[in-house]
Amino acid sequence: MDRYDVVIVGGAAIGAATGYFLKGPLGFAGTVAIIERDPSYERAATTLSAASIRQQFSTPENIRMSRFGIDFLTTLKDRFGADADVGFHAGGYLLLASAAGRAALEANHTVERSEGADIALLGPDEVHARFPALATGDIALGALGLSGEGWFDPHALLHLLLRGAKAAGCDVLRGEVSAIERANGHITAVRLADGRRLGCGSLVNAAGPSAGALAALAGVPLPVEPRKRTVFVADCRERPDGLPLIVDPTGVWMRPEGTVMIAGMSPPPDEDEAADAHDFDPDWHLFEAVVWPAMANRIPVFERLKLVRAWVGHYDYNPFDQNAILGAHPRISNFYFANGFSGHGLQQAPAVGRAIAELIVHGEYRSLDLSVFGYERIAAGRPVREHAVI
Predict the structure, then answer these.
(1) Measured between alpha carbons, how far is 91 from 260 in angstroms, rounded to an integer?
(2) pLDDT at 209
(3) Which of 11, 38, 136, 225 sees the fewest Cβ atoms within 10 Å?
C-alpha cells in the first residue's frame, strides 16, 4: 500500500490550488497526492465554468477571498514565471436591480464598501450614460465594479496551478475513489476503483459537484450536490463594445467572450434540483423561453443575435445556505472540506487552497479567517446565507 501524508481528492482548481500552496508557498515537508478521475478535465466544473471573478457578495469573507483571487491573478508572473498568463480581462460586473431588488443591492453595497471593494452604485440614467446600448427604463439601481472584477481563461489557470503543484512535489494520480476507510475517528485510507489502496494522514475533499457523494463514503452527510448550468454562446454582429458582465433582474447574466456573447441563468427554483453529474445535454428551452428575451429587453440589438452553440457545467451547490463549507470535520479532524461554492468556486480557488493548506500545516487560518464557513454550522443548522448567487 502506498501512503501519503495528505491525499487531495479532486485535481481541478480547488484541489490543485491546495496542493500548490501546501508544497509551494507553505513548504509542507510531507508527501501529497492529488487524485483526479478525469485528467483531460473535459468535463470538470473548472473548465466548463464562465470563469469570472467578482467582489460583489453579501458575505464579507467571500469578498475577502475574491480580493485575494484578484491579487493572485494579477501577480501570476511572480509566482509561476514570465510565461504565466490567463488572459484576465478587467471588464467588471454590472448587477442591475428593479425596484423590488433595490434594497438588497444597497445592503450588499454597504458590505462591499466596508471591505474595500471598488463598487459604485448607479442610478438608471448613470447606467445608460456609461452603457448607452442598455435599456434602463425598468431599472431602479445598478452596482458596477470599477476595478478588481472581470473574466479569464480557466484552462490556463488550472494549468498553472497543476504545474506549480507538480513542480513543488505533489504527485498527481489518475483514479476514482470508491471507498474511504476510518478507524478511531480518523480517515486512514482511500480505495480506488482500480483496486489501489492509499493510506493517508489527512484527506481533503475537493471533489467539486461530487463532494457530497465522496463525503458519504466516509459516512459524513454533506449538503453539496451537482446543479446543472447551461452556458449559451450567441453571435451578434451589432454587439456593443465595452460591455461588462451584466446580471439582469431576471437572473439572466451575459458577457462578451471574444467576438461572441455568452449567457446563462440559474433555472427557476421549482426546476433547479440536484442533477446527474454526468448530464451534459444543454437545456436549450431556457434560451428561447428566458435568456434571449431578457438579453433583447436589456440590449435591444440582441433581438438579432444568433445562437451558435451551448455547453453544460455543474455547480457544486450547497442548498443549505449557498456558501462554501471549509475546514476540518469537528469529529474527524483529519478530514478537510473545500466544497459547496454554489457557482463561485473557481474565483475563490487560490484563497481556498491557501486556507486549507494553512489548516493542515499550522492547525489554524493564518491569512484569512474563514471559520465562518466551518462544518459546525451545518451540524448546528445555523446557515450563513450568501444572497448574491448568480
Answers:
(1) 15
(2) 96
(3) 38
- Long-range Cβ contact pairs of 125-134 (< 8 A, separation 24 or more): 127/94, 127/96, 131/94, 131/240, 131/242, 131/243, 131/244, 132/240, 133/240, 133/243, 133/299, 133/300, 133/301, 134/246, 134/298, 134/299
Residue 146, Cβ neighbours under 10 Å: how many? 11
Rounded to 10 degrees, the C-alpha dihedral 150/53/101/317 comes to: 150
pLDDT for the residue 268: 80
Supply the DSSP symbol for 89: B
Amino acid letter, residue 281: D
At residue 256, what is the residue type? Answer: P
CA 304/CA 290 separation, integer angstroms: 16
Backbone angles phi, psi at 312, to 5 degrees: -125, 135
Q: How many CB atoms are located within 10 Å of the residue 233 CB?
A: 16
Instruction: For residue 96, give the H/E element and its range.
Output: strand 93-97
190 to each of 176, 199, 203, 226, 241, how far by Cα in Å?
10, 6, 9, 22, 51
pTM of the entire structure?
Answer: 0.96
